[in-house]
Target: Solute carrier family 22 member 2-like
Amino acid sequence: MVWVFDGHVWNMKLLDPDVFTSFSLASLTELPAAVLLALFLDRWGRRWMGFASVFLCGIFSFVAIATPSGSTMVAMAIIARLGMNIAANIGFQYAAEIPPTVMRAQGVSLIHIIGYIAHILGPYIIYLISESKFLLTTSYFYDPKITQPLF
Model:
């Protein structure tokens, strides 16, 4: 989830009209995400809100990919980021509730360390796309020793 969130944040430079306008518009999704979460989380629960927000992000991400460059693509990407903001806020709540009470501090610390590692690896994964989309997909699922002879 960290990589998807970071991908939506870092992808703003690829959207029209310019990086500052796109980033400013996408940043406006933070407040509505928090308000929607506050209004509907108690009614629907974390599981369904998490599912709906990730589904919203996925659908609008694919629509943004299929849409030609322009204001429509920016709108689709911003709606996708809204869904990812909601999912990230739900994920922050899960981090404090999953570990047992006895080891909650260590568990939350471990979850944060894993998140920091994901943030560190994120730019390298984004860089893999510029090299090869095949390399990106195989880096997740296969051993490099197996895929090295293919290149």
In short: The mean pLDDT is 76.
